[in-house]
């Protein structure tokens, strides 16, 4: 999502808020027109509206939409192609602002949502990259459910819309990307599971009606978008050159899962071009794939001003009306921005576009609002009508934010006798670092005003007597303030250094150029560690990975934690783990590369697979084989977990017709994963997970596979994961169903899915199991 024109439609947002507030019984200011409808289909105030079929909630959505569209003039229709949708007073339709955000809590980014004295804040969960590190699909959905409840509560008092442009499920392809923090990481399966789970939490109606929406989610940014502003290359001009193989096995799967598994109500196309075409004007990507192949039940929206960008910045068309026509004909339904509002009439006049195409676009938009109940009259009489300010920032919601942070925090290093600290034996704790006492840094970007903050320093102070020194004026740390920091560390029983980044280092429109800790942070860490008399715990607060090999190798630094941007309760979650109230179970959702990696790999190279001819090393754990600081899936616990395999096959046979070419030749390396072969072809893997430690805790079971080397297959890829709780000295059974066509297939060079024949190796923690797939 862009921040180019955040003030774009504020006036319409205010009118919507006032309209809804009027519906809640508030007095109208004198300047509000008496003709302004307070909500759509207010039949009690305007009985004549009851005669309109589009206001009849007992009719089906398609019939209601068709009735509404045929009543509109062309100019009125064009007004519904933009995010600041216009009012049609004669039909009892108020203005509506489509742009609201809910990346990890209800956000004030976008003109559709705001906070006030009535609702001063909402629950601010960890930034997505940390929630993803929990590898807990149940948590993903639980957070979405809380966010949608708070959103509905705010909508009922005129402070929020019903359409939220979240989640961001782009692949964290390059560690320098400033927006990687918003994503679930580098793995397509994890991103897919996160997206579908969060969407279900946002959208699923409490009345179990699959065609109703609690709020409408949006998966963004489609597609192959993962560069913002790097060394003079920006997202408005970048042409991502992507092979069909990489597109289909890396960049597209999360979006496909959003639509098919999550039934998402919207997909947002991105700024960049893919192979020479702007995504928002590519009929193959929009009408062909999203709506044609995946059968989207909802609307396609542009990133903000991206239609303007494809004309004015990319010069994809010669005239603005050509850009408007190209976007709508490609399958775009809604323009975040004003471009379609300004140029669609001219496109029709010039014969580039007919009214039927506009009807189709706005029909998708209206259908979404119908599913949200926007045309069902008084919201106070609907399913969520009783929600209000008391349902925002509840103790239960705030506790979930704390627990989400605890589940995601990753323990990367832990020398014997370091963590957890015992509060009874720590008489003095030195807390040092530019992120040690921060508030807003903890909630990352696309944030809202939180219920409250607990900083790391405050959280730690609840467990032990503390002294504090920032060590740097800010995360840029241009000059380390060593004296005070070394003084308190030298006399403390233990030292916690809270370092890392913030939005000045990595953010939207701000990619990094290196992977090093900013400024003199490394100097501060090393100097403090050298004089500390007790354990030294290094806490990295960041979205992307850092090259902290120096700290990993330094024996004086006894523990390392990565805490992402941990949300409003981040400080207490960090303290809970450091003092052993919570057993860490997070795992890295992305690779932490050494600085040498980015020294030789340009961010603009989209290729996932390595190229031995040029020395290109490939990307992510699936293809990269070089050195890492920490690897995807790394994470320690205060307990020791082991895996014991009970059942897995040695041989899997794919049934083929007797005259199939692969039955007649032993040279086949793969067979097409087609419906007639797949059916219910699969098998179960059964194992036990044992906790041999003295502390109960959760554990992530990864099911990874190394397929045969065919079609440039991944060296290893994630088939599934499961989060299980295991009592101290206990064990628990875990099973995983392997779908042969889904899990044992790879994408070939032209984007077709093939079952790889030959030896597969299954990796489950410290276990490896080989089995053969044949015909």
In short:
Helix content is 28%, strand content 17%.
CATH class of the largest domain: Alpha Beta
The major sheet is characterized as: 6 strands, mixed
Helix content: 25-40%
Poorly predicted segments = 2-37
Query: N- to C-terminal separation?
Result: 47 Å
Average of the residue pLDDT scores: 94
Overall description:
The strands form eight sheets. A six-stranded mixed β-sheet has the order 11-16-15-14-12-13. Strands 18-27-26-21-22 form a five-stranded mixed β-sheet, with no helix packed on it. 58% of the residues are buried. By secondary structure, the protein is of the alpha/beta class. The chain has three domains: 345 residues, Alpha-Beta Barrel (TIM Barrel); 203 residues, Rossmann fold, CATH 3.40.50.1700; 135 residues, Immunoglobulin-like (Sandwich). Helix 2 packs across helix 13, helix 6 runs parallel beside helix 8 and helix 10 packs across helix 11.
